[in-house]
Design brief:
The complex is a heterodimer of chains A (about 425) and B (about 90). Chain A is an alpha/beta fold and about 425 residues long. Chain A has 14 helices and 19 strands. Chain B has a domain of about 60 residues: 2-Layer Sandwich (Alpha-Beta Plaits). The chains are: A alpha/beta (about 425), B alpha+beta (about 90). The interface between A and B is large, with 53 and 38 residues.
Chain lengths: ~425, ~90
């Protein structure tokens, strides 16, 4: 086979963004996607934040098949039989350019693949890549369905598990501490019911996160996002964290119990289950690959570990799209120089370091340690619920002072070694 | 709802060849059996007669949690061939 300029492994957001930018520059690019079409293997919670992306992909968003503009943020702290909910909304969420949208990936990625094709890139579905071609230690192409495809550059965009990042020696096998599993149901409800039930204007949506007893002591939480005529409902659980709790139930049973909770059941009532999905999420300790490139290869998106759990916001898709664009810039420069070595490709690292991708990861680099602490996701939400229960409850006996109830809670939560240690660590989020 | 009924709603194109193979000799000595707990499809089980680990690969959602969680590398885990496996319509 004739040698190509660039082969992209994987037609998700990172891979397609890099192909989109390369195709626009007139560089020959081939995206190999193992599913029936781009997006057919992808899952998100999910919501995408657009503002960080305008400088990388300015002209993509007017026609993009996004779901609902998020104007309402809700967080629920779950006790065993009680819950506390905080709801936030702001006029700013309606300002232009748009802040964030809910999204379904099968639809969006398929559309993005079409945009790549329209700009002269090739997106070929049903092609799994099984290996990298190497010559004197440098990557010079891929092997797909038994066929060797030589290229100057390979962009690794095969997602969180990234078997190709392993083959390209960018990292070893993904350790369970650095991975979470997301389970999700897509539930159909009419747009009218969604808007009435969640108190939304037409076309607007809600992002609702749940923490506390639902993960049974493991790091993680629940999520609910409203799409146009469906709801995305699911649970994320840190793999090592969950297994460390010596679980008595299978992980899918947690999702069932979550759905049965009163706080959730009424939100999905009458809905029809359309799809059940699961996907791996990199929880890199919020430490992405230190060097996501090598001779002839660059890694983007989840494959490079670009995902950030900041507690009340969970992000990955913006990093994938932006890192894909930056990889394309670095590849373009390498092509101009005719040099695809590590030293030329280090330009990718410089671009990343100047961008929100590295800066945000740097800011939140220690958050995993805080979030995976079972006290953060289980003890504190439950403590809050216990204190509020005591405050709101009027029983047969005379009541204590409000201040002494709150003080008791503070003492139990924070005025001990574990609590003070947690407070000290919370600074890092 | 049990995972089987949920998986029945998904679109699958199944290959005749499994994309996951189990090294039974390793699993025999494994006390944790994390795969039984972490699979979102509940696809792992133990054959009560032989004690062997079983996997129904045809319902696999390809999340790879089993591969990531196995402490002994007992699973030969690959993605299904191009065009096979789960095909998400929503994602």
């Amino acid at each position: 086979m004739e040698k190509l300029d660039v082969v992209v492994v994987g037609g998700g957001l990172g891979g397609l963004a890099s192909a989109y930018c390369l195709a626009k520059e007139g560089i020959q690019v081939l995206v190999l996607e193992r599913g029936d079409h781009p997006g057919s293997k992808n899952v998100t919670g999910g919501r995408i934040y657009l503002r960080p992306l305008f400088r990388y992909l300015p002209d993509l968003w007017d026609e993009a098949p996004l779901e609902r503009l998020v104007t309402k943020e809700v967080i629920t702290m779950m006790g065993d039989d009680s819950s506390t909910t905080l709801q936030f909304t702001s006029k700013k969420f309606r300002e232009s350019p748009p802040h964030s949208y809910t999204i379904l990936r099968s639809r969006f990625d398929r559309w993005l693949g079409e945009q790549v094709m329209e700009r002269g890139g090739f997106v070929v579905p049903q092609r799994r890549v099984t290996d990298l071609l190497k010559e004197d230690g440098r990557v010079v192409g891929v092997v797909s369905e038994g066929e060797e495809i030589p290229s100057d550059m390979v962009i690794i965009a095969d997602g969180a598990l990234s078997l190709m990042a392993e083959k390209g020696s960018l990292r070893g096998p993904l350790p369970p501490r650095h991975a979470a599993v997301g389970l999700k149901e897509v539930i159909r409800l009419s747009p009218e019911v969604i808007e009435e039930r969640f108190g939304l204007k037409s076309g607007e949506g809600v992002a609702h996160l749940f923490f506390g007893s639902i993960t049974q002591g493991a790091f993680g939480g629940g999520f609910l996002y409203t799409n146009r005529d469906t709801i995305s409902l699911g649970l994320v659980v840190g793999i090592e964290s969950y297994l460390k709790t010596q679980p008595s139930s299978e992980v899918h049973q947690l999702l069932e119990k979550f759905k049965e909770k009163e706080e959730v059941a009424h939100l999905i009532k009458g809905g029809e289950l359309m799809e059940y999905s699961a996907h791996l999420i990199p929880e890199g300790g919020n430490r992405p690959l230190p060097k996501p490139y090598g001779d002839g290869i660059v890694a983007v998106g989840d494959a490079a570990g670009f995902a950030l759990n900041m507690g009340i916001t969970v992000r990955g898709m913006e990093f994938a799209l932006a890192s894909g664009c930056m990889a394309a810039q670095a590849v373009k420069r390498a092509k101009e120089k005719g040099d695809f070595s590590v030293s030329t490709l280090s330009y990718y690292e410089s671009l990343l370091k100047e961008s929100f991708v590295f800066k945000d990861h740097e800011t939140f680099r220690d958050s995993l340690e805080v979030l995976e602490n079972p006290r953060s996701v289980c003890f504190y939400p439950q403590l809050l619920c216990r204190v509020l229960e005591e405050l709101f409850w009027i029983g047969e006996e005379p009541r204590g002072k409000v201040s002494s109830t709150v003080w008791k809670g503070i003492k139990e939560g924070f005025l001990n070694t574990a609590g003070l240690d947690d407070l000290w660590k919370f600074r890092r989020i | 709802m049990d995972p089987d009924s949920k998986l029945a709603l998904d679109a699958f194109k199944n290959d005749e060849e499994p994309h996951i193979s189990i090294r039974q000799e390793i699993c025999k000595g494994c006390a944790q059996k994390y795969c039984l707990y972490i699979c979102p499809g509940g696809l792992y089980s133990i054959n009560e007669e032989t004690g062997e680990l079983l996997n129904e690969y045809t319902g696999c959602l390809e999340c790879s949690s089993c591969r990531v969680s196995c402490p002994y590398g007992a699973l030969e885990w690959n993605y299904p061939r191009g065009g096979f496996g789960v095909q998400y319509r929503y994602g």
